Amino acid sequence: MSGRRKQATSDTKTEILDAAALIMEEEGYAAVSSRRIAERAGMKSMPIHYHFGSMDELFLALYRRFEKIYFDRLVKAMGSDSPLRGLWALNRDPRDTGLIGEFLALANHRPAIRDEVARSGERVRAIETAIIAAALRNGDLEPGKLEPDVLAFVLAATCRTLLTERALGIDAAHDKVEACVERLLDQLDPARGTAAARQG
Question: Can you give the CATH number for the domain in which 175 is found?
């Protein structure tokens, strides 16, 4: 395949995935079909079947693209001055809340997607646990007082609940929950907490 043809193929696949992502975010995964994607992307439905043999393949490609974007952000958070606070900020980012919710709903109905989401989730949890384990070694908390994998789970669940409830218009106790987590982060990362307090 020539370089020009490869580029055209790549561009077409990107257009298809872009259109599918927009439909998924705006109307939900159930609205994603080859016909709707073709309408949104301004093309015939044939290229969709050519590039993605089935809807499962299309959804997998879309999820893997989303996963790569997330992992790029996670690597950036790990390389920041405070990886723990970078992780907290990343998980509170509302940009992808709708899409994440749709992927989770989709995973309940399509085994191939469920397996991919589970694999990715385990990988993310391992990285988050490593970040928290390093913070626990360097922080002010007593050794053994908190287990890294448990704290990783609690922080992830807290962020997910905050984002989900905000999307629904619920904000009861959110300020208190966030303040509680911030106090914990100050104990785990005292130098950064002191610096933030001075700037405030």
Answer: 1.10.357
